[in-house]
Amino acid sequence: MTRSRVLSLSFNQDQGCFTCASESGLRVYNVDPLAQKLYTEAVGSVASAEMLFRTNIIALVGGGKNPRYDEKAVTIWDDHRGEPIIDITFAQPVQAVRIKKDRLIVVLRNQVHVFSFPNSPQKLLSFDTRDNPRGLCEVSPFGSTLVFPGHICGSVQIVNLDNSQPGQTSSPVTINAHKTELACVAVNQSGTLLATASVKGTLIRVFDINKKTLQLELRRGADPAKLYCISFSLDSAYLCASSDKGTVHIFAVKETELNKRSTFKKMGFLGQYVESQWGLANFTVPAECACVCAFGPNQSVIAICVDGTFHKYVFTKDGNCNREAYDVYLDIGDDMD
């Protein structure tokens, strides 16, 4: 199989599958066991792709060198039919798409639009945002929490989709999470926890969405880094993060006593720095190679990288972390059983 440049990677809502958008088309993989479930060149080169759980519905945004679909449009692809069934065009390029069973969320540079879904999508809500070139936006698969950048540097807007009706002027709640621009945001499955990281990349902050309070401050490292991804486990007990340092960090969110603390904490002369909690465990992937991470079964973490590599590590509560699987997913052929 000819290698093609990977443009983006994304896990589905249950973290059991991932999409690979590339110059040669779209691939969909099962995570455990690793198997390619779809490969199609019919969509042209694809900038990003989002699955709707494990269904045949995939939201695409065209991009790359040979796109079939517009970068200013969201195309809903039905894999059973092998053709698009919905196409929504905008005045500017689409930065990201998020999808729920009853909502389609489209992210532009300065706006977030919420549509009904899947039958005859209608625009329900629109929100203005700070300039958002990364397309930062997340929605809880279960529950009704939608998060995206606020108007103030480092802030996050939180919308309850159940309480926001078309025509209503309900202002989103804003949390001032960082002093510098946001790099990553994540919400847990039920939409009760928010995790954020800034472009500085040293700290990850976890907020209680209902109380609008800071719950945890987790330290990735002392040196600045570009964070690619932060992700909660399905049960919200853990959080993982990947960066250009080539290290995937794993933190405990519920049993926080499992996280490492600085040996200087009791001395106090380092100030707030030592109050942050360090990772429970970590493992390495290729440095400076963008990758996304998520949790697999039985206390495992999966990292998939744009260089085509797949990494699976199993961690224990005492901080041990061992590699269980390594593969090159771009070299795996079709498995349509």
Tags for this model:
single chain; mainly beta; five-stranded mixed beta sheet; four-stranded antiparallel beta sheet; 50% strand
Structure description:
The chain is an all-beta fold and 337 residues long. Helix content is 0%, strand content 50%. It contains no helices and 29 strands. It has strands spanning 6-11, 17-22, 25-30, 35-40, 44-51, 57-67, 73-78, 83-89, 96-99, 103-107, 111-116, 123-128, 138-139, 145-149, 155-160, 173-176, 182-187, 193-198, 203-208, 213-219, 227-232, 238-243, 247-252, 277-278, 281-284, 291-296, 300-305, 309-315, 321-328. The protein is globular.
Task: Briefly characterize the structure.
By secondary structure, this protein is an all-beta fold.
Distance between the termini: 20 Å
Main-sheet strand order equals: 17-18-19-20-24
Number of DSSP E strands: 29
Proportion of beta-strand residues = over 45%
Could you state the order of secondary-structure elements as H and E?
EEEEEEEEEEEEEEEEEEEEEEEEEEEEE
- Total of helices: 0
CA-based gyration radius: 20 Å
The chain-level mean pLDDT equals 90
Broad structural category = mainly beta
Relative helix content: under 10%
Largest sheet: 5 strands, mixed
Poorly predicted residue ranges: 265-274
User: Which of globular, elongated, flat, extended, rod-shaped describes the shape?
Assistant: globular
